[in-house]
Specification:
Length: about 250
């Protein structure tokens, strides 16, 4: 079995390429990776009717960011991007299934939603997610959008105590201004959970917060993925310069 150190050394030797999916077959590669991570690894109940594929009604309206292993050409990381124009076409953002976004209404025309973020189990030492963030930053700069929004998931394998404890940590310093608060449609029952469990903040959540993201309210419970979801909002003007090189490539 590879140690964390040997996995990191192995990943450093790999070469990666980041791009947007340009064909239906490339989108399908992303959807197969999503199924592998979310359904096979995490046990999520996915609505797709095609075996081994995570596909939903939002996919045709989204752009799909891919990171490939340059040697094998395998898609090893992906993000789904829904811009405000396409969100208007489909009738709203994916996050609106979980949260009331009324207080973010005035930002809609300048706000991009990201989701379905996942990285292949063999590539989680950091390089792939850094490339995904760089690809997102390039997209935001190119199209001159001002806000990045999305749900960050925390496992509820322990019944939600870890999620409640993590939220108890991040709410101290990372809550959004009151005028940007959102409200979960199916709220995590925080009062019934232990808020003092020893729990590490998931790397993706930690990365967003270090960049300058706000937590916009209490977590929602997603029963299909069995996760507690935090709605995060990153104003591009707020990006922490210390971490900008990871996200902006400078």
């Amino acid at each position: 079995m590879l140690t964390q150190q040997s996995r990191l050394a192995q990943e450093e030797k790999r070469q990666f390429a980041v791009s947007m999916a340009r064909t239906e077959s490339e989108v399908l590669e992303a959807q197969r990776l999503r199924y592998k991570v979310f359904a096979e690894e995490m046990g999520a109940r996915l609505p797709s009717k095609e075996a081994g594929v995570d596909r939903d009604m939002y996919d045709p309206y989204c752009e799909h960011l891919l990171v490939r292993d340059a040697d094998s050409n395998e898609v090893v990381g992906t993000y789904r991007i829904l811009n405000p124009e396409q969100a208007k076409r489909i009738g709203g953002f994916y996050s609106e299934d979980e949260f009331d976004l009324t207080r973010l209404g005035h930002l809609r025309g300048r706000m991009v939603e990201v989701g379905r973020s996942c990285v292949h189990a063999g590539y989680r030492s950091g390089g792939v997610i850094t490339l995904l963030w760089s690809g997102l930053a390039q997209y935001m700069r190119q199209h001159q959008y001002d806000y990045l929004m999305g749900c960050a998931s925390i496992s509820m394998a322990d019944g939600g105590h870890m999620a409640a404890s993590i939220y108890n940590k991040v709410r101290v310093d990372c809550m959004s201004p009151i005028e940007w608060r959102v409200f979960p449609r199916c709220a995590l029952p925080l009062q019934a959970l232990d808020h003092n469990v020893e729990a590490a903040i998931p790397p993706l959540v930690k990365g967003y917060l270090r960049l300058g993201s706000y937590v916009c309210g209490d977590p929602a419970w997603d029963p299909d993925f069995n996760t507690a979801d935090l709605l995060l909002l990153l104003p591009m003007s707020r990006i922490n310069t210390r971490y900008a090189k990871h996200f902006l490539g400078k």
